[in-house]
Specification:
The complex is a heterodimer of chains A (511) and B (160). Chain A has a two-stranded antiparallel ribbon with strand order 1-2. Chain A is 75% helix and 1% strand. With 160 residues, chain B is an all-alpha fold. The chains are: A mainly alpha (511), B mainly alpha (160). The interface between A and B is large, with 63 and 68 residues.
Amino acid sequence: MFELLGHGLLTVLQWNYLVPLFAGTLIGVIGGALPGVTITMTIIVILPFTYGLDPLQGLAAMTGVYVGGSAGGLVTACLLGIPGTPSAIATTFDGFPMARGGAPGRAIWLGVWSSFFGGLLGGLFLILVTGPLAAIALQFGPWEYFSLFVLAMAMVAGLAESSFIKGLLSTAIGLLITVIGTDPIGSVPRFTFGSEFISGGFPFLPVLIGIFAFAQIMSDIEKARAPKTPEAVLTAQPSLGVSLGVSHLKVIGEILGRPFLLLWSTIVGILIGVLPAIGGSAANMLAYDQAKKLSRHPERFGTGIPEGIIASESSNNANVGGSLVTIMAFGIPGDAVTAVMLGAMTIHGIQSGPLFVSQQPTLAYGIYAAYILAHLLMVLILAAGALFMLQITRVRLAVLAPVVLVLCVIGAYALNNTMQSVYVLLIFGVFGYALVKCGFPLAPLILGLILGDQIEINLIRAIMTDDNPLLFFTRPISGALLLCAALSVALAVWQHMRHQARTAHEEAPEF
Amino acid sequence: MRLGRDSFAGLIFLAVSLILLVQSFGLPQLPLVPVGPGFYPRIVLIFMAVTSAALIVQDLLARRAEPADVPAPAQPQRAYGLVALAFVIVALYLVLLPLLGYRIATVLFVAALQATLERPTTWRQWVVLAAIAIGTSAVTYLVFERYLTVLLPRGSWTDW
């Protein structure tokens, strides 16, 4: 294993891999630092660049974006109090007060080094666990796969913040998109209404780009004429006078002097990463909450203490490792970012899943190596240009929006050099924006979209092998997974009802 | 009772799922496969119909529970007209792309969207806008077409 990792490191250290990795990490850090630009959007923007690269070059660039983006948000979070990405929301709670209290360098570097250590621990987990998990996944039959996918969707729909029912409906919409076109077993056209345009179904990546990138850009445009918030006014102010000088040994000592906090936040990040489609936004908030609950002085959280920054930043980078485990062992994306990576792998003809590590060891260990090196590059990039990032955050929406949209169009067009994919992009851009405006969560839709085909294929394969439907429940792993799915739904319903009851109680007049 | 936004969304998805559900019964049965091509879509569509109905019921119940004269909370200023215009500009770009070719259509698109989002007031701002539009088109063309061998659309009118 370590021999393969060493080989992977030597491969990625070659300039033709190092350049895409560095470029990806740099773009990720910048995308992460730009408020309103998510890591998903950043990875969508660099997607077309990966078409012309070899698979490892492309995946190295994407891994760089993912790692860099997870750390990039901390710069604006600490210095401006505006999280560059949702993954850095909790970093603002203590990072901004610390920076405002006269220690901006300490705040930034506590974040950077916490991201580094959290990320490396996540990487260790990625390297050690992917193989054994893939071996377990190899024991899976179609029943187990079907049940695993159902569990993934039940969890994501249940965790939808806005509404549990909207989460389920969003999942159903994602699944419905996958059944339009030809059926995967007999190639019978379904719901095409005789149209050539949709006879082959909707290609996954243009749908994803449309739903995510367009919806995000249009939401930003929507707020373009709104009066400036105090934070936005602050962003427009010069910041070159700020000094980020700090003793790195002291900062590293501060982090490593709290081993339990670092380890626990990392574990939270990894676990959130392993759970499908939740992502870094939940990881940093949950780790911060855990750190506060386990602290001897919870009242000091939010006043600018190192614990808050360590918890948030170590967990969001560890989350990347967890997400990569899921995609590499099971072929299930951990979040929207890994969904794009999965799509990019498919373009290069690579099948992700339990056989991925054993059949493509060069690629798998190359990704591990890229992940580790991206953390080193991330530290170097932030050391060289943390203040420069603040200047970049002032790029106007009027410039950013058209450039991002052009890259989205190239990303869709270059998939198969036809305008059809670009039209699909626009259709789903409008649709995604409408869904966002109606309060539908997009993560369940994307998961339904990614897993729809696999669910159908495994369901039909299971029925073709044995037409006894009880096997889904009586096979131990399959049954356990379906039970977990049912419990997940029941828990979500219970939480929703409890929330309703509490709200009603709070609003009820007292007699 | 007035329907809310969620009820409207639920009704649309309910109608879509019911129409497609009816269609799914007309799909042909394959001889060697125990379940036909309509089997799985029917499960999805029933699931969608049930969740759509649940959304409508939830919205109606929530509206019934609401006191009648509660003033709506103040909404932040939203530029929906600008969003609609942006979508129209993107649509026009996609129409012009196969006619004018990537290079010309992209210059026009970037310039038009920039001007729509932030109208230049001085000649200097117009020059910057034009430079960004031409620069975006030229740089992306060179990077993708020349270095990454990604073929970009040629214009049927311009052959560019």
